[in-house]
Amino acid sequence: MKTAIFTAAAIGIAAMGATGAAAQGMPMGEELYGQTVQVRSADGTVNTIRFMSDGNAVISGPNVSPVNAKWGVSGNQLCLQAGGASECWNYSQRFQANRPVSLASSCNTTAQWTALGVAPTQVAEPVLRERG
Fold this sequence. Notes:
Elements: H1 2-14, H2 21-24, E1 35-41, E2 46-51, E3 56-60, E4 67-74, E5 77-82, E6 85-90, E7 101-104, E8 110-115
């Protein structure tokens, strides 16, 4: 049963939405820090995944207790590990808030991922120096 929860939750991660990573100047995945993503599987089941900045995540779904997981990004893959199972999703662009994205997984499934929010881009403020 944990594997099914994990798969559904991983599907929810994909729905986060995507934008160009290099253009935003932050490592892939940082837009998910502290954010929740809804994942809709092919059978219509919707799970949510809450991503923490320390690599932990919590996967929740209908009629199941929350499941603690680990997550990370490597190359163009967003991966989740929970209960001894792991699944990775194609992830080539950053998620945008409320923009559904269809992602394919390493387990030959697809799901619609929708990020409910994204973390703000960290941009350094210009340093002003006095002349003279």
